[in-house]
Design a protein that fits this description.
The complex is a heterodimer of chains A (about 110) and B (about 110). Helices cover about 0% and strands about 55% of the residues of chain A. With about 110 residues, chain A is mostly beta strands. Chain B has about 110 residues and is an all-beta fold. The termini of chain B are far apart. Classes of the chains: A mainly beta (about 110), B mainly beta (about 110).
Chain lengths: ~110, ~110
C-alpha cells in the first residue's frame, strides 16, 4: 500500500499570512506530485503540479519538492478567506498508472 | 457544460439494489478513473481504465464493477449495494502527458 501522509489540521491562519501545508510519501519511484483544493461538497480542483526537485511558483502558490526526503509542500502567500478549503496532496505510483491521495489538510483563513 | 459529467448527482437506495453511476467526458482523454471519498479517508481508487479494452482494479474494487462503453464513457456499478458503500463517488480523467486529474462534480450515494 502506497502511503501519502498529511496533517489533517485544522490549520488556521489570519488573512494575509502564509499558510504552509506539508505532505510525505512512501513510494521512492513516484515522479509526479500534485496539490488539489477541495471546497466542502465540491470536487477537487488542481492547484499545482511539480515534477522536479526545488520550488515552483504560480501566483500566490509555491510548491516545494524534495525527493530525497520524500517531502512535498504547498505555501500559500497572502492567504485569503476564499482559500479556506481542504487541500489534498496526490502522488503518482512508480508506474505512473495510479495516483495516491493523502487524507487532506483543512485550512481556515480568518478575516 | 462540465467537461466531466456524472449522473446521478444524488441517489438514495436500499440494501441489495443494483446501482449504476455514469460518467461521460468531453476532454478527449483516454484515461478515466472512479474514486470513492469518505470523510477523513481521502480519495480511494476503485477502478481505472486507459482505453476501451483496458480495465484495472484499484485499491478498493471489491463489491464494484465497471464498464468502459466508449472512450468518453465509464460507468461504475454496485451489483448489490450495502450501507458501507454510502459515500461520495468521483469520476476523473487524466492527461497522459502531465498526469493532471480532472474531476466530475461527484455522485453522492446513500444506501439504507
Amino acid at each position: 500500500q502506497k502511503e501519502v501522509e498529511q496533517n489533517s489540521g485544522p490549520l488556521s491562519v489570519p488573512e494575509g499570512a502564509i499558510a504552509s501545508l506539508n505532505c510525505t510519501y512512501s513510494d521512492r519511484g513516484s515522479q509526479s506530485f500534485f496539490w488539489y483544493r477541495q471546497y466542502s461538497g465540491k470536487s477537487p480542483e488542481l492547484i499545482m503540479s511539480i515534477y522536479s526537485n526545488g520550488d515552483k511558483e504560480d501566483g500566490r502558490f509555491t510548491a516545494q519538492l524534495n525527493k530525497a526526503s520524500q517531502y512535498v509542500s504547498l505555501l500559500i502567500r497572502d492567504s485569503q478567506p476564499s482559500d479556506s478549503a481542504t487541500y489534498l496532496c496526490a502522488v503518482n505510483s512508480d508506474t505512473g498508472n495510479q495516483f495516491y491521495f493523502g487524507t487532506g489538510t483543512s485550512l481556515t483563513v480568518i478575516p | 457544460d462540465a467537461d466531466v459529467t456524472q449522473t446521478p448527482r444524488n441517489r438514495i437506495t436500499k440494501t441489495g439494489k443494483r446501482i449504476m453511476l455514469e460518467c461521460s467526458q468531453t476532454k478527449g482523454h483516454d484515461r478515466m478513473y472512479w474514486y470513492r471519498q469518505d470523510p477523513g479517508l481521502g480519495l480511494q481508487l476503485i477502478y481505472y481504465s486507459f482505453d476501451v479494452k483496458d480495465i484495472n482494479k484499484g485499491e478498493i474494487s471489491d463489491g464494484y464493477s465497471v464498464s468502459r462503453q466508449a472512450q468518453a464513457k465509464f460507468s461504475l456499478s454496485l451489483e448489490s449495494a450495502i450501507p458501507n458503500q454510502t459515500a461520495l463517488y468521483f469520476c476523473a480523467t487524466s492527461d497522459q502527458g502531465t498526469g493532471e486529474l480532472f474531476f466530475g462534480e461527484g455522485s453522492r450515494l446513500t444506501v439504507l
